[in-house]
Amino acid sequence: MKNNKGILLKTGTNELEIVEFGIGKNHFGINVIKVREIINPVSVTIIPNSHPHVEGIIELRGEVLPVVNVAKAIGFPASDTPEKDKFIVTEFNQQKIVFHVHSVSQIHRISWQQIEKPSEMYQGADSQIIGVIKLNGEMILLLDFEKIVVEINPESGISVERLQKLGHRERSNKHLVIAEDSPLLRNLLLDTLAEAGYHNIEFFENGAEAYRFLESIINKGTEIEKEVQLVITDIEMPQMDGHHLTKKIKQNSDLSKLPVIIFSSLITDDLRHKGQVVGANSQVSKPEIDELVRLIDQLAL
């Protein structure tokens, strides 16, 4: 898995690759883009009074990295065969974190259209599941690793305090469309952007819903800039990801003038070119909400 960033995928095809891993008898997945490498467990240094989901820290090629026990984080029992456990070394939200899992099996290439949104019938408000994949007679659950990290360290998430450096804000009538599948992040964005003066916001749970809304405006014969002034999109979303949404907007002559900001945990120096290829006007890594607001001020029609 080392140096996996070169495996795949043309940008904007609405495809992704996931690493399938196991916790107990359940199958879970993580986007390959988040994964730097997979290693056998190494000695962990325990940190006094750390969060109960944090096993401790390890040194990996000169870097000190925290180790999160995924089974504890999702309420599962410990491994029956700890000698077969694996460490998944990840990078997202501008930080590197090691996730301790029970097994790693294979990589799957799938379409975001194959990923179903979890039903409220079987998951509560605190669920860490962001998608369900039916594959080869099995169910693979996509974990919300960002939520797991924010629950451990709330300061790593989006917060109103990040906006204080921008000073007093006037109320804006700009209409923003936001595609974001995480209920937690939708609520945080609503609160923080309201603090920044942006109250006219339309949220959608994935890129497909956002694109249908934009198309409906065009189909009524209305010029898009009279209804919407800017689109903000996450990358990882069921049905249609943010790269594919951006590509469709920029290839539609009636929508192409809309500025699009990609706001995602996956914005890194190595991956920024993916957003550039599909025509994003700008890209910001979560949780840099103050930088997002500066770009909204600059780009909104």
Write the layout of secondary structure elements.
Blueprint: E1 15-23, E2 26-31, E3 35-39, E4 54-60, E5 63-69, H1 70-73, E6 86-92, E7 95-101, E8 103-111, E9 115-116, E10 129-135, E11 138-143, H2 145-152, E12 176-179, H3 183-195, E13 201-204, H4 207-219, H5 224-227, E14 230-233, H6 242-251, E15 260-264, H7 272-277, E16 282-285, H8 289-299
Parallel strand pairs: 2-11, 5-7, 12-13, 12-14, 14-15, 15-16
Antiparallel strand pairs: 1-2, 1-8, 3-6, 4-5, 6-7, 9-10, 10-11
Short description:
This protein is of the alpha/beta class. It has eight helices and 16 strands.
CATH homologous superfamily classification of the largest domain: CheA-289, Domain 4
Q: Estimate nothing, just give the exact number of structural domains.
A: 2
Mean pLDDT: 90
> What strand line-up does the widest sheet have?
8-1-2-11-10-9
Task: Please summarize the sheet with the most strands.
Answer: 6 strands, mixed
**End-to-end gap:** 43 Å
Q: What amount of the residues lies in strands?
A: 25-35%
Quickly list its features.
301 residues, disordered N terminus, five-stranded mixed beta sheet, 2 domains, 8 helices, OB fold (Dihydrolipoamide Acetyltransferase, E2P), 23% helix, six-stranded mixed beta sheet, Rossmann fold, alpha/beta
